[in-house]
Amino acid sequence: MKAQSxxxxxxxxxxxxxxxxxxxxxxPIPKGVSLNxxxxxxxxxxxxxLVRDWTGAPKQLEECLASVNLSFSNxxxxxxxxxxxxxxxxxxEFREKNPNxxxxxxxxGINLVKSFYKIETGLRxxxxxxxxxxxxxxxxxFIEAPNVHWPETMLTWDASSGTLFTCDAFGSFGALGxxxxxxxxxxxxxxxxxxxxxRYYADIISxxxxxxEKAIRKTESxxxxxxxxxxxxxxRRDPGKIIGRYLKYASWAGGPAExxxxxxxxxxxxxxxxxxxxxxxxxxxxGVPYTMRKIPDENISWVLMDAYRSSALVLAMPxxxxxxxxxxxxxxxxxxxxxxxxxKVLRIGSWGWVGGAKKDYEAAIANLKWExxxxxxxxxxxTEADLKALEERGAELARLVKNG
Length: 404
Ligand code: FEO
Hints:
By secondary structure, this protein is α/β, with parallel strands linked by helices. It contains twelve helices and 20 strands.
């Protein structure tokens, strides 16, 4: 891996992670993820963000540095925009290689350096508007951006190159390979990263959308030429594209999103599935786009992504032992944690000897601010009348989306 020059004295370093491990221990990354760090060199040198020791990431970073005749020991400062261990896990080893580099973070970040890594010296807390003069015309400034993604998060701004180092903000899943800049990827590759940025946003950032919007508003007066996140593409041709995309994602929190219906369904013996097919016929009749995810077969990461981007949901699950089908309970728990609010929702499902999903479901969605259509339940396999009613209910939901 080689360092990529953003501007004179400003380099992107990155490590590509390819692993069966789950990101944050929850989210699959079948196409990998990049951990980006940055070097800014004036008379003194600063390293912005780090990596964790994960599938050889420190070695990859070391190779990037060597490609521009740098090494970890060359840095006077290590700036930690965000303390989550994907960006800091290798901190103690870095400190051993370079005991002199001052570690810079917000006060909350410094507290995490102490609690996570038991490092007590060579620390500097910075706040909004503070600057770090590297000499040679390179002055970095710090912008607090709490809760994008953790409370201690900040952004770093290099006015000399117009580069905003944003850590998790504007990031995506997906490994980069040898290219890092937006102008180096073709349309298909951009489509891939767009989907992976949405999945990343839904999985990691969605519950902090109000803070994302606030951080973007806070930086909109800056003459940003390059958006340099710590995961995914570095945007130098069209930084407005990823900023606009994140504003769009943030606007979906709590309200209407795309005119799409996410059909999320589980079935034990095909009885609920028959109902799902009928609902889908109704949706198709109205010509509204929809996506389907079967649970638990499909991972929650993609289920969440579909739900986040959709204005409406169909949730289909049978009653299981007097309560909801357990995989749907997990889905709804994640929806609650990730603030999947303000959706139009149709719930359907079959029951065997007795119902029970309804009560369980209603308790689970109590605080989600959903607009619920009348639900549809039936014993065993749906009758012709049930199927007709289900199709009509699907069409009704689709019309609400179409006209919403
Ligand atoms: Fe990429 Fe919240 O860490």
